[in-house]
Amino acid sequence: MTSNNNSPKSITIFVCPPTCLPSEIPGLAALLKEVVDENIPLNFCQPFSLKDAEAWWGDLQKGVDAGTEIVILAHKHADDLDQHEKQSGESENTWSGRRLVGCVILYLAQKTNAFHRGEIGKLLVTKEERGSGVGKRLMDCLEDQARKHGRTILVLDTETGSPAEKFYDRTGWIKVGDLPDVVYLPDKSALSSCTFYYKRISRPI
């Protein structure tokens, strides 16, 4: 387990063991729905329910069990939850004295000519923790895991012009280019473009 308790809010970053994923799904589903409800493109359209979100995370179990998909979580300790969070009754993403505040997925490419590559999915952080460094710590942990699995290059895409794009620009990712009008926004009100990035995390052998 990878953790760091030096954050002012004592947020722990760790790799979710396969056996623990089912108990994390309610919180992960709530977080995913929260972001989709903000009209951020994540391959889903409205209406998008908690059941839809739970089913999506449940479908990851096979890959997590096989070790080809790695889910990394950020938990905020109960002692650091503010009074509103403690009284809000958000039981869907709070358990055992901790609250889920972020996640990211590392997909380990399985093609025989791509065992050096990793792909990034679903970097999600709750509204109240955005800008606090949680996203950077999640990605740092992800890069460590990618290295441990022999990956030397990572790739991702994100919404063009979004805060996420600025985050990747700041954290050492190399922009490849934009693909215009490639997906609809969740509410289907407009088309959205994607920006593609890569990052080398160690020298190729």
UniProtKB/TrEMBL annotation:
It holds the Pfam family Acetyltransf_1. CDD domains: NAT_SF. Residues 43-204 form the N-acetyltransferase domain. The keyword Cytoplasm does not apply. The keyword Acyltransferase applies. Keywords: Acyltransferase, Transferase. Signal peptide: none annotated. InterPro entries: Acyl_CoA_acyltransferase, Bact_Acetyltransf, GNAT_dom. GO terms for molecular function: acyltransferase activity, transferring groups other than amino-acyl groups. Coiled coil: none annotated. This is N-acetyltransferase domain-containing protein. It comes from Tetrapyrgos nigripes. The lineage of its organism: Eukaryota, Fungi, Dikarya, Basidiomycota, Agaricomycotina.
